[in-house]
Amino acid sequence: MRLPRIVPFFYLKINQMAKELPYFKFEPNQWENGNIQMCSREAKGLFIDLCSSYWSRLGELPYALALQKHCNGIASVLQELINNEIIIVLDGQIVIEFMDEQLNEFQETSGKRRDAANKRWKNANALQVQCKSNAIREEKRREEEIKKKNTASLFPSFDDFWVKYDKQVGRKNCEPKWDKIKQNEKEAIMQHLDSYILSTPDKAFRKNPLSYLNQEAWSNEIITKNQMNNEQFTNIAKSIREQYPNL
Fold it and tell me: How far is Cα 242 from Cα 123, in angstroms, rounded to an integer?
């Protein structure tokens, strides 16, 4: 004699409710303009599968079940939906808020299910408030770090170079070039400028700032007028010795 199959009460309840809830409402505008658009196509497809399971199970969808049934045990795509706040995981259960709203609207939902949904709503709202609060604190922390960094910027700045060079030509193109120069080279430039500016008191003979930076002129030797005279004198003396070796 064949024994009758025993079906758990939970699934009997699901089948009964599924007949009364054959479909859920889907709003294209929310889909087109919601956070779901930040997700990959794979994540979007997974979300549709999760919605179907969530609805057919009356909002009772364990995370472990969804992971194995819809993701083959690979959590990366499921985590993408969580990171983009498409779904929430509370106490091991997946929560899809817009579907909970529709389930709560249904008058025949059991009191236990309604209480559980309300509890999850409160927990979800508290979690969202906490997440937003953490995000605000993190943003303020970053702003403070940026502010401190800007306040305590390393010497020399572009303005330090610009003022000291004292030939204000082509700043628009010069400043981006300065930003690409390494810190140790900037320091070498400021040291080199002391001698370079003395050797070119007439700004007409001083390189334009951009040319100075592009040519890495701070690496060049500065030949002063006195040095030229000494060099000329040395050459003349050498020439005389060669012409009159007996002197």
Answer: 100
pLDDT tens per residue across span 136-174: 888 888 877 776 565 446 789 999 999 999 998 999 999
Query: Does 201 sit behind a cis peptide bond, omega within 30 degrees of 0 on the bond before it?
Result: no
Cα separation of 84 and 86, whole Å?
6
Average pLDDT over every residue of 202-222: 90
The CA–CA distances, whole Å, from 139 to 80, 84, 146 equal: 22, 18, 11
Output phi, psi for 104, to 5 deg.
-70, -25
CB 36 within 8 A of CB 47: yes
Kindly write down the DSSP assignment for every residue of 86-99, as one continuous string.
Answer: SSEEETTEEE-HHH
**Global pTM value:** 0.38
Report angle CA 104, 77, 27 to the nearest 5 degrees.
40
Which residues, 6+ apart, have CB-to-CB distance to 71 below 8 Å? 46, 77, 78
Own/partner long-range contacts of 30-34 (Cβ < 8 Å, ≥24 apart): 30/98, 34/86
SS3 label, residue 62:
strand
Task: Quick: pLDDT tens for 97-146.
Answer: 988 888 887 755 556 666 777 777 777 777 777 777 777 888 888 877 77
Distance between CA atoms of 71 and 49, rounded to whole angstroms? 10
Q: In terms of C-beta density within 10 A (0-12 exposed, 13-18 middle, 19 or more buried), how is residue 58 classed? A: buried
Domain segments of the chain as ranges: 9-142, 158-243
